[in-house]
Every structure is written in C-alpha cells, then in structure tokens.
Design brief:
Elements: E1 17-22, E2 25-30, H1 35-41, E3 46-48, E4 56-58, E5 70-73, E6 76-79, E7 89-92
Parallel strand pairs: 1-7
Antiparallel strand pairs: 1-2, 3-4, 5-6, 5-7
Length: about 100
Amino acid sequence: MSAGDLRIGGDAGRGARVRLTVDGHRFHAYAGESLSTALWAAGVRELAGGIDGPPSRPVFCAMGICQQCAVWIDGRRVEACRTQVYDGLVATSVPPEP
C-alpha cells in the first residue's frame, strides 16, 4: 500500500479530515468520501484476496455492483465503494477470524 496522496490540491468543498486504518495501514480521508475513493486517492489500487479467492482484488466498478472492494468493518462485510469514511474507521480486506 502506498502513502502518496493523489487528491487534487486544496481543501475547498471537502468535509473534515478523518483518520482511518485499513489492513494495519493508516490513511487520512475527508468526511463524505467513500472508503474506496479514499484508498484510491492514497495510491491503493488493490485489496488483499481471500483464502480461496484471487491473490488481490482491484477496485473495479466503483458503484457497488461487482463486490470486488468488499471489506470488513466491525465484523460486517460491506463494499468500500458504498461506505462513507469516518474518523477512527478500521477495516480489513480479509474476513475476520470466526
């Protein structure tokens, strides 16, 4: 995962800056962004694959159809492209241990 931020400069029209952690890596984002948008802006192009799945999963459709961007937040499976970030968000790209 990359820490380089690819957002266009300036904070005009953005929500408050928030902190989040995905797979143990820390990022920042802005309130109102989707998790996949925040990861893309941080240079992340793929998520870890599952035990029986592909070795990695790219963010593909960005509109909640393909489910390639599935992550787990508080034990719940959600699509990163349909989940808004919030301060303190912690997500994993592989299912939590039962």
